[in-house]
Amino acid sequence: MTTSELGLDYADLPRLLTMMTGDEKHDASATSTLDVLWVLYDRVLRVSPATIDDPTRDRFLLSKGHGPMAYYAVLAAKGFFPTEWLPRFGALDSALGYHPDRVLIPGVEISSGSLGHGLPLGVGMALGLRAQGLTSPRVVVLVGDAELDEGTNHEAIAYAGAVGLGNLTTVVVDNQSATHGWPGGIASRFSVNGWTTATVDGRDHDALEDALLAPVTSADRRQPHVVVAVVEPKFG
Amino acid sequence: MTTPDMRTTFAAVASELLDADRRVAVVLADISTDRFEDAARRHPDRVINVGIREPLMVSVAGGLALTGMRPIAHSYAPFLIERSFEQIKLDLSHQDASAVLVSVGASYDWTEGGRTHQAPGDVALIDTLPGWAIHVPGHADEVAELLRSAVRDSRSAYIRLSTRSNAEARPAATSGALDVVRRGERAVVVAVGPMLDPVLRATADLDVSVAYAATVRPFDLAGLRQLAEVTARGVVDVVLVEPYLAGTSSRLVAEALVDRPHRLLPLGVGRIELRRYGTPEDHDALYGLDPAGLRRSIVDFLDGSSVQVA
């Protein structure tokens, strides 16, 4: 279950990260998302290198785009592209930039880097799947807690809740880096708009899996779902 | 029988496209929703009103396109293009996704409404992005074909509707080619969209060619070269009259005539914010875009003594 076709596992991720950074110690922006991304691709998302163009695949959108090394490491471990690509991170002829480009990287659903685009795009994808009668695929968008500052997220949160986009899940990786914080908790911003919520330890794989799969196991999918994955503070 | 205006024609044709093609979706932000009520009843999943959230509207169009749909997003020009510009740049162009954006309001259709509802810079903004088609119909009867072909096409398009109109439609122009209205020797005058009638009045007794464009991107470079050939007497004089920011298409005239000695007079909406109300016709006069103002500029440019007056 936890082993990819290439035989790479969670334990291989630090080595893959080092292939990009050349550094044994990885900064917080690179690793805050690592466990969430691993659980998503290992246990949750119904997508594989063989199904990247399948209309019924699950869509994962890395909205924040910054520190994409963890994303690249997980995609490489799962065989979406060769691990040999990793050392060329950021080079002129590399597919792997400091922000991901969907046109260049197999399996990457959106190009990101500018904050506040992934969730609104995800709303459009969720609507597009629904309009085409594709009821099984989910759209999962990963944002950062500081990224929530961007107003476009709040347009998306309010609208998705109002129209009951049950095929949309947001994962907020919360390393408490928002300049003005979110008094009352991040989940409250979503629940007031009609989302179901779960707040879990962003390093606990089983808890993440349960929270991320909750909308799939629920018979009632008329509400969008948010998982707040709390990790160690960026400046803690 | 009066011809319906451009916006009414747009809503009717977009509704037909929703009926005919399951890939088509219309995304709105509370503006024009009354015109899509029937279509929304027939296609509740494909007529999408996100409320007063224009950036979300554009991003939703991008997301729809990424699932294989053909979205049409529509609002007032400043909100559709200017407020949402990074969404257009990233959530459509950068994603390699495409949509058809249809605006109303143009440069100053609602002069009484003031600056907030005016967008003379919209075409120039879209022109910073690669590969977009830009259509500026001059009559409601040109809208249907421009919209149908834009939706049929796979690339992104911007269709700029206006309450300003020429008296007659010129269906030939919906092919994208420059449509030669009159031929003359002294200069080539290119009139874009609703500027055709004022240009024809301004140049009625001048020995100039007048060509009409309802599509400005891609610009008909070959057509312009051909016209310049006919009228060439040493230096080619070109007058470009656009109903949005003056000079928006100057670079393309320069490109078309790169190997030909030429002079160019670019006319259009000025960069001054007038802070005046009144009527669109008042603003035409203030910007020199009424027939009298156009004539003054063109005659000055051509150097009065050399212009043949019939």
UniProtKB/TrEMBL annotation, chain A:
InterPro entries: THDP-binding, Transketolase_N
Protein's UniProt name: Transketolase
Pfam families documented for this protein: Transketolase_N
SUPFAM superfamilies, per the entry: Thiamin diphosphate-binding fold (THDP-binding)
Phylogenetic placement of the source organism: Bacteria, Bacillati, Actinomycetota, Actinomycetes, Propionibacteriales
Domain of life: Bacteria
Annotated ranges, domain Transketolase N-terminal: 25-219
GO molecular function: magnesium ion binding
From TrEMBL, chain B:
Pfam families, A to Z: Transket_pyr, Transketolase_C
Leader sequence residues: none
Stretches that traverse the bilayer: none
CDD domains, sorted: TPP_PYR_DXS_TK_like (cd07033)
MF-aspect GO terms: magnesium ion binding
Superkingdom in the source lineage: Bacteria
UniProt cross-references to InterPro entries, sorted A to Z: PDH/Transketolase, THDP-binding, Transketo_C/PFOR_II, Transketolase-like_Pyr-bd, Transketolase_C
Start and end residues of each Transketolase-like pyrimidine-binding domain: 4-169
Database matches in SUPFAM superfamilies: Thiamin diphosphate-binding fold (THDP-binding) (SSF52518), TK C-terminal domain-like (SSF52922)
Name of protein: Transketolase
